[in-house]
Specification:
The structure holds two protein chains of two kinds. By secondary structure, chain A is of the alpha/beta class. Classes of the chains: A alpha/beta, B mainly alpha.
Chain lengths: 303, 477
């Protein structure tokens, strides 16, 4: 047995070394989530889905709300809609010593919806998200995340690392998702058309959810123990804005009621939607995101 | 839990350590550990179906005990039928209910009758086809007095749920595997180290060959209407290696893992793509299923004792049943029937047992005739695989029709050089080892050559394998 174990161990050394070395190269190029699970536990957080991930820049918030360092912990509408799983992840990510944090909760009709026919917890789209199973949220390198969620050969981690050039979707250490795409009007129009078609399909297969609203409320009450909470409606392009209006005409009223009930501000920027540029009609272009983030900071200062 | 997952990489050493260092003094404790580990292994898939395995275990154990007590043929027959009906009943409900319902509605709609019975939302429990056949083999063997009924419930539960082969086989016979749970197991260095080599080879086949072929095959089958004839041929060939790498890789890992615990499982694949005729292919492909059907269906039906026509009839029956076993879809039934048709000339000429030894024994390469036979057999198998892989029959026929276009003899525009290279390595290793247990059984080589080859295979896995939830194809059966 001893001989067997020694031999197996000797062969396992290069295998372990391979994973340890390649995993240490993981960065914002690795995938769209990895860096969320490597940054230190924050006391100021940006939450929501991909609109918040791309549209709210933690650096700009930090500059405009001095002495604060923000972490953008918004993933996507599939992985981080408001619900038990996202709330569990927020609890794991947040620094438990936080006392006067600022929490910006990005909302839109999509991250408060649920697919039709969802009657079990395991049917939720976020059920298979990395947020559910992961235990380590702040280790770097985060081998647990990579082992469970990086499904390509790990050689890609080394090959596609930042020092070889940033990818189109680069996730910064502070959680900001920087998307670099061509903003030529024709290409933007093409992407807008596709995105609108996608959302039309989504409207047909999902509906607004009491579960999501209750989860948002639970998230608010949880975070209020650690500081100030702001609900922020992140605007979109004209077509999707109109679609949202048809899909959920009472959205703002519902959110206003919730803000009154929980005594937190509702910052609604939807009427300013045409002031910003969007990469696909849904996500704000990174330069517009900076302007938008500054507006959020200004609004927070006024409250 | 998947063999190619982090969970299994943690689970296996823990169970191995507990097995050889904690429970090694007591056979009962070792068997209990196997049962607990197996239920945990399965429970990670879906704990709700653990009750089904437990029920099947308790039922067949109790029937076995009863068969040991009763001597009257009628009583024994009733006990046997309880086992058959219950086990196949579960299989029928979980696997075939919707298929029969849909076809029933369709048949009656032809005559103008409309039924609106909605299909039930039934989830297929992973491995049900495998462990059902395993428990059935026990009751049938006890009924036939080939096996003494067990009085050791823990050993029987371990036999039914043994985690290495629980979800995708090999389908073990009670006569072979169950007695192994009664005997004290001692760590065997040779067996364990060969087990590790077999696991390594299985991982190569699954993670490098099958998982790299998979996306190309998916793309070709999804867009077959826009692909050239040569690309479609390539798609069928790559699928042949995908399914072989996937399933025989699973079997290698299962057998290798069992060896680490001192168990010997039956060989499930014996280099089938080097077969010279379709009969040889079926003696070498998914051996545990083929021989199960031979022993528990073909022979009870009369086998070949009743002359040529009975042989033909029974061959068709087992191939059609085998197709149906793979899934409730007409594509599988057609695939089974097609294989029976391929068998027909061999039966008529009585040459179905003419290639019993490994090809080109003692030679480095086959002669022209052998090579041509291998190619022809492989071509037939690939042709049948199209039906196995297709979503439905019309897609399969349309795929075949699209092959025969003017660009059939062209080079496929997107030639998968890397994947063909992996297949080349697979074939080279397996050809060199075609009389050995598995492709990496290279004891005859110098120690440094051996170690270098192990490291090369390990490197190929680390460099080219995708680590993630790449499920095994046979889990769906």
């Amino acid at each position: 047995m001893k001989r067997f174990l020694i031999k197996v161990f000797l062969f396992l050394i290069p295998v372990l070394a391979w994973f340890l070395i390649l995993g240490s190269f993981a960065d914002g190029n690795t995938d769209n989530y990895y860096q969320h699970f490597t940054s230190p536990k924050p006391d100021n957080m940006i939450l929501g889905s991909s609109r918040a991930a791309q549209g709210i820049n933690p650096n700009i918030l930090g500059k405009n709300l001095p002495d604060r360092k923000f972490d953008n912990f918004a993933l996507t509408v599939v992985d981080s809609p408001y619900g038990e799983i996202y709330l569990g992840a927020i609890k794991k990510k947040l620094d438990p010593k936080t006392k006067d944090g600022i929490f910006i909760l990005g909302v839109d009709p999509w991250n408060l919806s649920i697919p039709k026919g969802t009657d079990k917890f395991s049917d939720l789209p976020e059920y298979n998200s990395p947020l559910r199973k992961l235990s380590s949220y702040d280790s770097k390198p985060n081998y647990e995340y990579l082992a469970r969620n990086f499904h390509r050969t790990w050689y890609h981690i080394f090959r596609d690392r930042e020092s070889n050039g940033k990818s189109n979707a680069y996730l910064h250490q502070n959680g900001w998702m920087e998307v670099t795409v061509s903003m030529k009007p024709q290409e933007v129009a093409e992407r807008e058309k596709d995105k609108y078609a996608d959302y039309k399909k989504i409207v047909a297969v999902q509906h607004l959810s009491k579960y999501r609203l209750e989860s948002l409320e639970k998230t608010i009450y949880f975070l209020k123990n650690y500081g100030k909470v702001y609900i922020v409606r992140i605007p979109s392009g004209k077509n999707i804005k109109n679609l949202e209006k048809d899909y959920y005409p009472q959205f703002d009223n519902v959110l206003l009621d919730l803000s009154k009930k929980s005594k937190i501000p509702y910052l609604n920027f939807n009427s300013d939607s045409e002031k910003f540029q969007y990469t696909d009609g849904n996500h704000m272009y990174k330069e517009s995101g900076k302007v938008f983030t500054k507006q959020i900071a200004d609004s927070i200062k006024l409250k | 839990m998947l063999f190619n997952s982090l969970d299994f990489a943690i689970f296996l050493p823990i169970v191995f350590g507990l097995y050889w260092f904690v429970t090694n003094k007591n056979l009962k404790f070792q068997n209990v550990l196997i049962v607990v580990a197996s239920y945990y292994f399965y429970g990670l898939w879906d704990w709700r179906f653990l009750g089904l395995i437990l029920f099947s275990t308790v039922l067949d154990y109790s029937l076995g005990v009863a068969l040991g007590k009763y001597e009257k043929p009628n009583h024994r027959k009733i006990l046997l039928w309880i086992s058959i009906i219950t086990n196949l009943g579960f299989l029928g409900i979980f696997k075939y209910y919707n298929f029969f319902l849909d076809n029933f509605i369709e048949v009656f709609s032809v005559f103008g009758y409309r039924f609106s019975a909605g299909s039930l939302s039934i989830i297929l429990p992973v491995g049900i086809s495998f462990y059902t056949f395993q428990t059935l083999s026990y009751t049938i063997d006890v009924y036939k007095n080939k096996l003494e009924p067990t009085k050791d419930f823990v050993a029987f539960a371990a036999f039914v749920s043994f985690f290495p082969q629980l979800v995708a086989g090999p389908i073990e016979r009670a006569t072979h595997l169950l007695p192994q749970f009664y005997k004290k197991r001692h760590f065997n260095y040779q067996l364990a180290s060969d087990g590790i080599r077999q696991i390594l080879w299985g991982l190569f086949k699954k993670m490098v060959v099958a998982d790299n072929c998979s996306p190309i095959v998916n793309e070709i089958f999804a867009n077959y209407q826009n692909e050239s004839g040569s690309t479609l041929v390539l798609g069928a060939v790559l699928f042949a290696f995908q399914i072989y790498g996937d399933f025989s890789g699973y079997s290698d890992i299962a057998i290798g893992t069992s060896r680490l615990f001192g168990f010997d499982l039956m060989k499930n694949f014996n280099y089938p793509y080097f077969s010279r005729d379709i009969a040889e292919f079926w003696r070498r492909w998914h051996i545990s299923l083929s021989t199960w059907f031979r022993d528990y269906l073909y022979i009870p039906l009369g086998g070949s004792k009743g002359g040529l026509w009975m042989k033909i009839r029974n061959t068709f029956i087992i191939f059609i049943v085998s197709g149906f076993w793979h899934g409730a879809n007409w594509t599988f039934i057609f695939w089974g029937t097609l294989n029976a048709l391929f068998f027909l000339p061999l039966l008529l000429r009585e040459t179905n047992r003419s290639n019993l030894d490994a090809v080109a024994l003692g030679k480095l390469i086959p002669n022209f005739r052998e090579f041509f036979s291998i190619l022809l057999t492989f071509g037939l198998v690939c042709f049948a695989w199209i039906f196995f892989r297709a979503e439905n029959l019309s897609q399969a026929f349309s795929y075949i029709e699209s092959i025969f276009t003017w660009n059939l003899l062209s080079i496929p525009p997107k030639f998968p050089t890397k994947e063909i290279g992996f297949i080349g390595i697979l074939l080279l290793f397996e050809w060199m080892n075609r009389t050995q247990e598995h492709g990496l059984e290279i004891e005859r080589f110098n120690v440094w050559i051996r170690r270098s080859l192990y490291l090369c295979v390990m490197f190929l896995i680390l460099r080219y394998a995708n680590f993630g939830n790449n499920e095994f194809i046979y889990f769906q059966f």
